[in-house]
DNA sequence: ACGTGCCGGACGCAGACATT
DNA sequence: AATGTCTGCGTCCGGCACGT
C-alpha cells in the first residue's frame, strides 16, 4: 500500500467523482481509476459504490476512510514539520550554553538573530560543558556555546572570543587592596569552585596546575551567584570571568597577572550530524555577531 | 441519440536492479 | 561504468453503462 494510493482514495472519497478527483490530483482519470482498483484489490474489498455518474463510499470505504484519516493527518503534519524545520526562515535551532552566558550574551544574541529571522524557534539548554558535549555527540542539540576545553573526535570547535579570568575575593581579604595579584599569592586562600565538568573549572584547574599549586577547594557549586555568595561570606576566593549582572557588593575583583588567566569561548557542533539550513544560518550569524563584539571591545 | 463518466488494454517512459 | 531486463506508473483511446 502506497502513501499515494491513500491520497488518491481520500481525494475521490471527498469529491465523490473520479474525473474531478483526477483533476485535483493532476493525473488522468484512468490512472486514478486503476490506482483505486489496485487498492481495492489489495484490501480485498470494494471501497466505493458506483452511483449514477459519480461514486460514493460504501460501508467498508467509510470505515477505511475513518481509520486512515488520522494517519494521513499525522503524515501531513510530520511532512510540514520537516519543511518548517529545514526552512532557514522558520526552523528550530537547539543551543546549549554556559550559565555565565545566560545573563546577557545569549539573550542579546537570540534577540539579534530573531530580528532578521523572526519565525525561527529556539530550544535552549544550560549545562556543564561535558554534559553539553555529550548532548552534541548524541545529536540532541545543534550547537554548544562554551569554554573551549575538551577535544573530541566528532566535535568541531570554532573559537569566538577570549576573555580574562579574574580572582574574586571578599572585601577585607589581605590582597583585596592590590591592583593585581599572581595565582601564587592566592595559593593559601581557600577556593570556591565550579563543579567538575564545567569548562571554566577545567580552565581553573589548568591554571593552578600551571602555577604548581594544589587548590584548597572548600566548596563546589553550579551557579555563579552561589559561588559569589560564598565569597561574600568570606568562605574563600574564586576564579571566574567578569560576569555581568552579578551582585558585587562585598566582593573585590582582582586581575591576575601570573600565569596569564584567560579562557576561550567557542561554538561546538557535531561534524558527523546533519546541520539544518537554519542552523547553518545561525552559525554564520553568530560568527559575524561575536566578531562585531570583539571589535567593539 | 448524445453526452458524460468509469473501466481496461496497449504502449511509453523512467527508475531499480542484475549482469558483464 | 555500461548495458539489458523488469517493474511500476503514466497517457491514450476505445468500449460500455447510464442519464438526459
Automatic annotation (TrEMBL):
Keywords: DNA-binding, Transcription, Transcription regulation
SUPFAM superfamilies tied to this protein: Periplasmic binding protein-like II (SSF53850), Winged helix' DNA-binding domain (SSF46785)
Pfam families per record: HTH_1, LysR_substrate
Keyword Cytoplasm annotated: no
GO molecular function: DNA binding; DNA-binding transcription factor activity
Domain HTH lysR-type: 1-58
UniProt keyword Transcription regulation present: yes
GO CC terms of this entry: cytosol
Record-stated family: Belongs to the LysR transcriptional regulatory family.
Protein name per UniProt: LysR family transcriptional regulator
Lineage of the organism: Bacteria, Bacillati, Bacillota, Bacilli, Bacillales
Amino acid at each position: 500500500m502506497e502513501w499515494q494510493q491513500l491520497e488518491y482514495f481520500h481525494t475521490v472519497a471527498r469529491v465523490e467523482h473520479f474525473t474531478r478527483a483526477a483533476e485535483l490530483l493532476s493525473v488522468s482519470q484512468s490512472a486514478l481509476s486503476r490506482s483505486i482498483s489496485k487498492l481495492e484489490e489489495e484490501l480485498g474489498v470494494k471501497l466505493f459504490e458506483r452511483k449514477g455518474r459519480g461514486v460514493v463510499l460504501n460501508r467498508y470505504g467509510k470505515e477505511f476512510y475513518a481509520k486512515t484519516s488520522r494517519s494521513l493527518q499525522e503524515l501531513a503534519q510530520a511532512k510540514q514539520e520537516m519543511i518548517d524545520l529545514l526552512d532557514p526562515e522558520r526552523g528550530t535551532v537547539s543551543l546549549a550554553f554556559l550559565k555565565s552566558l545566560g545573563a546577557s550574551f545569549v539573550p542579546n544574541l537570540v534577540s539579534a538573530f530573531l530580528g532578521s529571522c523572526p519565525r525561527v524557534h529556539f530550544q535552549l539548554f544550560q549545562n556543564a560543558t561535558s554534559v553539553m558535549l555529550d548532548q552534541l555527540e548524541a545529536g540532541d542539540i545543534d550547537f554548544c556555546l562554551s569554554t573551549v576545553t575538551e577535544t573530541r573526535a566528532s566535535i568541531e570547535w570554532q573559537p569566538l572570543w577570549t576573555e580574562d579570568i579574574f580572582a574574586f575575593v571578599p572585601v577585607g581579604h589581605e590582597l583585596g587592596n592590590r591592583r593585581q595579584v599572581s595565582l601564587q599569592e592566592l595559593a593559601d586562600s581557600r577556593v570556591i569552585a565550579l563543579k567538575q565538568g564545567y569548562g571554566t573549572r577545567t580552565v581553573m584547574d589548568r591554571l593552578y596546575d600551571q602555577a604548581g599549586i594544589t587548590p584548597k577547594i572548600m566548596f563546589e557549586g553550579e551557579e555563579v551567584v552561589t559561588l559569589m555568595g560564598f565569597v561574600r561570606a568570606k568562605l574563600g576566593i574564586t576564579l571566574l570571568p567578569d560576569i555581568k549582572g552579578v551582585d558585587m557588593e562585598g566582593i573585590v575583583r582582582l586581575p591576575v597577572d601570573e600565569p596569564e588567566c584567560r579562557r576561550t569561548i567557542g561554538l561546538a557542533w557535531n561534524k558527523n550530524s546533519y546541520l539544518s539550513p537554519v542552523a547553518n544560518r545561525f552559525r554564520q550569524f553568530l560568527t559575524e555577531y561575536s566578531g562585531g563584539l570583539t571589535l567593539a571591545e
